[in-house]
């Protein structure tokens, strides 16, 4: 009786969704073993405009970098599978029975946001599909008054032995709630009237539910919205069909409007990725977790797409499935080589060029390139002729790639020793010292890679040669260790002082646009915050308007034995510190702003009777962020600005941009000097726009001086420096 009321439509079309393994069946026996999965498929639509409400697909090798198939054109003719002429919110599941299931919202928003239909589709091979349209208002009298039915998804119910379809519906005078019903054996209809599965406890709209099973429990991610709440939440239950209890708080890691969350498990990993559509800003954010309750956002530089998705799903696929996808829906300019599995390769900085058919592999110092096997990673569906160790010392090596259509092509693979960046990951505003206590160098950067410079903790790294750095861990966490600020952990500096025969370490840091101070007995901590801001407001002696209270620098004057403190953004302020290093001599506070090029990031050091003052010009989001300098005869000026005072700037030929906010280190007992600075992450940074300003990397290059003491302009390098030896 129910089936007869459906408008059933059967269609064959190529979908390039071969062999999808759904995160929705995590914890359930799957028809394809996890070890067989080697790539990821992203299914999505692209927007609300004409032709954008359609099914699109993209592939990824690592689950983080995606490239559109079919040149980002729709995979199937939308008019053929929908009544409205638009489909949204595509969700795909690999079934327990070897079939594949896709469900979609039948909605064309050009005609308004009301709809009553969803679409069910099934396939045995993800190439030929049969689809059915279900008008919920017509089929189920109880819901004849619904004004919308959104974002259907599917999961296999082990207990029932059936596929459960769940979605949100809205009735007049109420709010969106999540309902479910079981699909019939043919996956062409729903067996019975939908039942309520979940509603938001605050009685606000609840949409875009996404269920994943982990450890015997079901986690439902959903969007709730209204005047008091917004964002993505998660509710947990021991049962698939009832008993969901919301976990406190939100799991999305942004203040921006979000919707369309989906979770997938990384292949052969305990890490889960939550993705959601920041639909107003036209962005997508990924966040990772191992418990599905606590998530950490991945930075913009860690994710890449050559398309703009809306509300989609990511699922693992096998190599054979990916090959079929690529054969059916080839795209121009795909990077056929995407990386290398050899642990000696700096994966963060690999550069693939599909047009030139080249790939650049930066390799850690100390690696032999005379007999080097990069273990190349190809785009899903592409086979690479792997070779044993090759000699990369003098020239690139040619590799042959086999494509799904039976043709071959060659790539030139270049491997090169790259000492820069010196730290793995995203860090900025590096401060460096040599610890006389430990006889090591210590690097204290800003923890970067967080949207809007929103990091909340500081780390330190140690080295004996300036090349190999050991991660010493978090030394100060604003959320745990600081009572007066909990945001914007930026730009620290540090001083080692011997007081009453005992070494102490004074760590000045920016937080919430103020400057704090924490103290430790060892360079790697633990550090104890003083409990209040060291500089909480701009002193009256600083006349310039505007500018933040950030970017501290501390300097020990070897001539007088006194210590000095500098800070500022838009202005340079300086003052003498009291002997306890915990306060300034207020009467010595001086404005020292050199000229209109000054932005921030003061760095002071002493060499051969001269005091050198460095600062950063422009904005850290700008490719032209760079360093200038002046000299003085005393720690508080006045400053003498050379005519040619540029220290370091971008190098477009090497694609090095945003070189700034530096510190300087002198190897004890020598006249060897080095500049430590940050740059845009390479190669992604230059194409990122503003986010490049909070996805930065730390580099070190040699700093040299002319006979008259002037600084010789530094050319930033990819190679970095040779390891230094400390005098015995």
From TrEMBL:
Question: Per the record, where is site Important for catalytic activity, responsible for pKa modulation of the active site Glu and correct orientation of both the proton donor and substrate?
Answer: 551
Query: Which key words tag this protein in UniProt?
Result: Carbohydrate metabolism, Glycosidase, Hydrolase, Polysaccharide degradation, Xylan degradation
Pfam families in alphabetical order: Glyco_hydro_43
MF-aspect GO terms: hydrolase activity, hydrolyzing O-glycosyl compounds
State the SUPFAM superfamilies in the record: Arabinanase/levansucrase/invertase
The residues annotated as the active site are 429 (proton acceptor), 600 (proton donor)
According to its UniProt entry, one GO biological process term is: xylan catabolic process
What family does the database annotate?
Answer: Belongs to the glycosyl hydrolase 43 family.
Its protein name is: Beta-xylosidase
What is the species listed in this Swiss-Prot or TrEMBL entry? Leeuwenhoekiella nanhaiensis
């Amino acid at each position: 009786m129910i089936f007869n009321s459906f408008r059933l439509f059967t269609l064959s079309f190529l979908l390039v969704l071969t062999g999808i393994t759904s995160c929705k069946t995590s914890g359930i026996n799957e028809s394809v073993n996890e070890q067989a999965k080697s790539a990821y498929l992203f299914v999505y639509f692209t927007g609300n405009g004409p032709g954008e409400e359609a099914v699109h697909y993209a592939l990824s090798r690592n689950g983080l970098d995606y490239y559109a198939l079919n040149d980002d054109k729709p995979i199937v003719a939308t008019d053929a599978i929908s009544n409205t002429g638009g489909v949204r919110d595509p969700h795909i599941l690999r079934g327990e029975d070897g079939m594949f299931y896709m469900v979609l919202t039948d909605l064309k928003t050009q005609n308004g946001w009301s709809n009553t239909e969803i679409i069910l589709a099934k396939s045995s091979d993800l190439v030929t599909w049969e689809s059915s349209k279900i008008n919920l208002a017509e089929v189920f009298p109880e819901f004849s008054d619904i004004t919308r039915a959104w974002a259907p998804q599917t999961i296999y119910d082990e207990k029932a032995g059936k596929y459960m379809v769940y979605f949100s519906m809205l009735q007049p005078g109420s709010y969106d709630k999540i309902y479910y019903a079981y699909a019939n054996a043919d996956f062409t209809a729903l067996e019975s009237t939908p039942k309520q599965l979940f509603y938001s406890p605050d009685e606000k709209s609840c949409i875009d539910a996404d269920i994943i099973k982990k450890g015997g429990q079901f986690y439902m991610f959903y969007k709730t919205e209204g005047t008091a709440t917004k964002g993505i939440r998660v509710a947990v239950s021991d049962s698939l069909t009832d008993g969901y209890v919301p976990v406190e708080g939100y799991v999305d890691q942004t203040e921006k409007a979000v919707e369309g969350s989906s979770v997938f498990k990384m292949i052969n990993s305990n890490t889960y990725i939550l993705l959601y559509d920041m639909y107003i800003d036209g962005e997508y954010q990924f966040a990772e977790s191992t418990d599905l309750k606590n998530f950490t956002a991945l930075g913009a530089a860690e994710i890449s797409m050559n398309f703009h998705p809306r509300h989609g799903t990511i699922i693992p696929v096998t190599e054979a499935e990916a090959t079929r996808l690529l054969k059916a829906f080839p795209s121009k300019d795909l990077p056929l080589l995407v990386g290398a599995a050899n642990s000696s390769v700096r994966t963060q900085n690999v550069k693939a060029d599909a047009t030139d058919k080249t790939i650049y592999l930066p390799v850690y110092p100390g690696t032999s390139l005379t007999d080097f096997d990069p273990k190349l990673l190809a785009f899903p569906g592409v086979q690479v002729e792997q070779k044993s160790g090759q000699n990369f010392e003098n020239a690139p090596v040619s590799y042959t790639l086999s494509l799904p259509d039976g043709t071959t092509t060659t790539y030139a693979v270049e491997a090169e020793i790259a000492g820069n960046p010196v730290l793995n990951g995203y860090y900025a505003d590096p401060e460096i010292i040599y610890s006389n206590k430990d006889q090591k160098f210590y690097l204290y950067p800003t923890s970067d890679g967080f949207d809007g410079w929103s990091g909340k903790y500081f780390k330190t790294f140690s080295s004996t040669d300036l090349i190999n750095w050991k991660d010493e861990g978090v030394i100060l966490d604003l959320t745990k260790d600081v009572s007066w600020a909990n945001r914007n952990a930026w730009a620290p500096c540090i001083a080692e002082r011997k007081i009453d025969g005992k070494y102490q370490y004074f760590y000045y840091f920016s937080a919430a646009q103020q400057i704090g101070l924490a103290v430790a007995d060892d360079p790697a901590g633990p550090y104890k915050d003083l409990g209040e801001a060291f500089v909480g407001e701009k002193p009256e002696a600083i006349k310039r308007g505007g500018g933040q209270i950030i970017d501290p620098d501390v300097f020990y004057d070897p001539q007088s034995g006194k210590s000095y403190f500098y800070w500022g953004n838009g202005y340079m302020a300086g003052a003498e510190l009291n002997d306890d290093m915990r306060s300034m001599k207020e009467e010595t506070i001086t404005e020292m702003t050199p000229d209109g090029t000054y932005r921030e990031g003061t760095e002071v050091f002493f060499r051969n009777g001269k005091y050198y003052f460095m600062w950063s010009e422009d904005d850290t989001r700008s490719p032209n962020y760079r360093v200038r300098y002046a000299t003085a005869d005393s720690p508080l000026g006045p400053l003498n600005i050379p005519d040619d005072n540029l220290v370091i700037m971008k190098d477009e030929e090497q694609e090095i941009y945003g070189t700034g906010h530096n510190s300087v280190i002198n190897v004890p007992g020598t006249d060897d000097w080095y500049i430590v600075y940050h740059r845009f992450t390479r190669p992604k940074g230059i194409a990122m726009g503003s986010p490049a300003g909070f996805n930065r990397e730390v580099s070190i290059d040699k700093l040299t001086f002319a006979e008259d003491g002037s600084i010789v302009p530094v050319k930033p390098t990819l190679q970095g420096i040779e390891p230094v030896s400390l005098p015995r």
